[in-house]
Design brief:
There is one protein chain. By secondary structure, the protein is mainly beta. Among the domains are: 109 residues, Immunoglobulin-like (Sandwich), CATH 2.60.40; 77 residues, Immunoglobulin-like (Sandwich). A four-stranded antiparallel sheet has the order 6-5-8-9, with no helix packed on it. Strands 14, 15, 16 and 18 form a four-stranded antiparallel sheet that branches. A hairpin with an 8-residue loop joins strand 14 and strand 15. The longest helix has 9 residues. The two termini are 51 Å apart.
Length: 280
C-alpha cells in the first residue's frame, strides 16, 4: 500500500480543469515506549504529590504523569509515549512521535514550570516496547557537580560566611563532620549542615531466625539496600540479602522508606561481618 493514493480524480468545470489532491495516509500505531523514574524537587527530595512530569516534542505536550506517591520503589512517574511506525506522511495522532525523535521533560509543581537538571541526558524516543529509566531533578546545576543549586545555597547559608558561591561547595567534602560526604547526604535526603542528621544504623541487635535487625530513620521516597563484607577494603563489599521482618523472604531489590523508623533484617553471618546501609 503506497503512502499516497495516486488515482487523482479529474473533473471538468466549465472551461477549466481541476485536480483533487490525493489523500495521504497517516502512519500506524506501534507499542508504546515508556520513560520512567524518580522526579526530585530542587532540594533533591522525591516528589510525593503536587507535581506533574510532562514530556514535550517541540512545543507539543505528548505525555504527562501526575505524581501521587510511588508507582514502585524509587519510581514516581511513568510517561507513556505513543509511537508511530514512520511509514506515513504524518503520525496517526498529534500525540504520536517516532523512534529517534527528540523530546524534553519539565516538572510543574506549586511554584510553576521548572526545567530539569538532566536536560542534556534525556534520550531520543526509543523503540516500541522500550523501557527507559531517567531520574530527573526540578532545578538547576550551575556548576555541573550533580548537586542542585537550591541545595548548595542551603549549605552556603549555614556556613557562617565560610562559603560564598556554588563552586565552593564540594560534593566530596563533609561540611558538618558527620562522616557522610556532602554528595552522600544529598543522595540520602539528609541535611549536610546538621551533624546529627545522617544516615545511621541506630540499632543493630539479634532477632529471631538467625537474623540481625538494622534500624534507622528513613526519608520518604528514598530507597535503601544493604551491603556486607568480611573486610573493609572497597572491593570487599557485596550486595546483602535482607528482609522486612524476622520471618520474611529475603531480597536484594532496594526498598522505599516510609519517612519514619524502619528495620531491615539480614542473615547473622559467621565469622564477623560488616554491614553498610545504602541510600539511593
Amino acid at each position: 500500500m503506497k503512502d499516497c493514493f495516486l488515482n487523482a480524480t479529474l473533473s471538468v468545470l466549465g472551461l477549466g480543469l481541476a485536480f483533487l489532491a490525493p489523500p495521504c495516509r497517516a502512519g500506524l500505531p506501534q507499542p508504546m515506549c515508556i520513560i520512567y523514574g524518580q522526579a526530585l524537587d530542587g532540594y533533591g527530595l522525591p516528589y510525593r504529590a503536587g507535581a506533574d512530569v510532562i514530556l514535550f516534542h517541540g512545543t507539543s505536550e505528548i505525555a504527562r504523569q501526575t505524581i501521587n506517591g510511588s508507582l514502585a520503589p524509587g519510581v514516581n512517574f511513568a510517561l507513556y509515549v505513543h509511537l508511530d511506525d514512520g511509514r506515513g506522511a504524518k503520525p496517526y495522532s498529534p500525540r504520536a512521535v517516532r523512534t529517534g525523535d527528540s523530546v524534553s521533560i519539565v516538572v510543574r509543581d506549586k511554584d510553576g514550570v521548572k526545567t530539569i537538571m538532566e536536560s542534556q541526558l534525556v534520550p531520543p524516543v526509543g523503540l516500541p516496547g522500550d523501557l527507559l529509566l531517567l531520574n530527573v531533578t526540578a532545578g538547576q546545576d550551575t556548576d555541573g557537580d550533580g548537586l542542585s543549586d537550591l541545595w548548595e545555597w542551603e549549605i552556603i547559608a549555614w556556613s557562617n560566611g565560610a562559603l560564598h558561591n556554588l563552586w565552593e561547595v564540594n560534593g566530596d567534602d563533609d561540611f558538618d563532620g558527620d562522616h557522610m560526604s556532602n554528595r552522600q547526604e544529598y543522595q540520602a535526603g539528609t541535611f549536610a549542615f546538621l551533624d546529627y542528621d545522617a544516615l545511621l544504623i541506630e540499632e543493630l541487635i539479634p532477632a529471631a531466625n538467625g537474623r540481625l535487625r538494622l534500624t534507622f530513620l528513613s526519608v520518604p521516597g528514598i530507597t535503601y539496600s544493604v551491603r556486607c563484607a568480611t573486610g573493609l577494603s572497597e572491593s570487599a563489599w557485596q550486595p546483602c540479602a535482607f528482609s522486612l521482618s524476622d520471618a520474611g523472604a529475603f531480597q536484594t531489590v532496594p526498598v522505599e522508606g516510609p519517612g519514619n523508623w524502619m528495620s531491615l533484617y539480614v542473615p547473622l553471618q559467621e565469622p564477623m561481618c560488616f554491614y553498610h546501609l545504602i541510600a539511593e
